[in-house]
Amino acid sequence: MTTDSYFTLGFYIRKPKGDRAEYPIFARVSVAGQATEFKIGRTVDPANWDAKKHMCRGRTRRDLELNKYLELVRAKMCDIHNMLIREEKHVNPAIMKTLFLGNGEKPKMMVEVFRETNEKRKEEFERGDIVFATYQRWTRCADYLEEFLQLNNNVPDIPIKEVTSGILDDFQHFLRMKKACANNAAVRYLRCVKNVLQYALAHKWIDHDPFLGKKYQRTYSKREFLNEYELNAVMKLDLKEIPRLELVRDTFVFCCFTGLAFCDVKSLKQTDICNDSDGNTWIRKPREKTGELSTIPLLEVPRHTIRSV
Questions:
Q1: How far apart are CA 133 and CA 287, in angstroms?
Q2: Global pTM?
């Protein structure tokens, strides 16, 4: 930002080429010895122009409306100047002119920034830093956010600066009611949104964190587990007439005896199963969620399950 950011604004007329009854009006903006000029899109009879007061001296309705417009131009330039000062940006006549004419930098949009960060998540997924389920949560959250804004604001996106604490609460309600998300699922989506807003805060696209003071608590439920009797009952079920359910049952039993999650079983390959020098069979496989290598003994029951599939 310049040391002296005070600006002056004046209006003047200039004789156009050719024989015209009215002259175009120009605005001149000066900041710290620098100046720029531009047309404001209005004309005036030179006989009615007061060069000292920078306004029209006529009393007709058209002249009064012109003076009112000049005041609007002055007010808009003041707003632009205050915005640049507030955001600690460089202040000079060229920047003020650009912003006044609408050719300035477009505001960052919430969903647009979200999809921008999702490109980084895609690269992380392709590099193996995150699993597909995590990447899918990010992309789905962006889709949900766009759907929410279309439903509530009748637009697919809003400037990221306009995201408020109330909008976050409304989005949580949308996830719970419209998308039937459980509390923990909704909290995970909101954490994605928080990450995006922190990314915007770091790039100075926003000057406040709408999540400040907010706490979205996950619920912790007591998980039930099968005892030996119940597990044996599941294993003895005769499901031969329904092959699909038989495969589901066998996969579930395999998970129970190996401790692997379903996503780990889904990605299990023959090369992940090996024998040691004593003839014992082991599963050696990186876990999908953490990437840590697991070494698991392949017992008789899961070994039989593999042979039967």
A1: 14
A2: 0.59
Closest CA to 177 of 210, 158, 152, 211: 152
Taking alpha carbons only, the member of 16, 36, 34 closest to residue 25 is: 16
- What lies within 8 Å, CB to CB, of 189 at 6+ separation is 137, 140, 141, 144, 175, 181
User: Is residue 149 within 8 Å of residue 111, measured between CB atoms?
Assistant: yes
178 phi and psi angles, rounded to 5 deg: -85, -35
| Contact by Cβ (8 Å): 189, 141 | yes
108's enclosing H/E stretch is none
pLDDT score of 3:
46
Rounded CA separation 36/10 (Å): 11
d(CA 172, CA 275): 50
CA distance 64 to 53: 14
How far is Cα 234 from Cα 247, in angstroms, rounded to an integer? 12
What is the identity of the amino acid at 21?
A
Dihedral of CA atoms 71, 73, 74, 77 in degrees, nearest 10, equals: 160
> Would you call 80 exposed, middle or buried from its count of C-beta atoms within 10 A (0-12, 13-18, 19+)?
buried
Tens of pLDDT, residue by residue over 256-307, are: 999 998 888 888 888 999 988 888 899 999 887 777 889 999 888 888 887 6
106 pLDDT higher than 80: no
**The pLDDT of residue 23 is above 50:** yes
pLDDT tops 90 at residue 75:
yes
Could you write out the three-class secondary structure of 177-222? HCCCCCHHHHHHHHHHHHHHHHHHHHCCCCCCCCCCCCCCCCCCCC
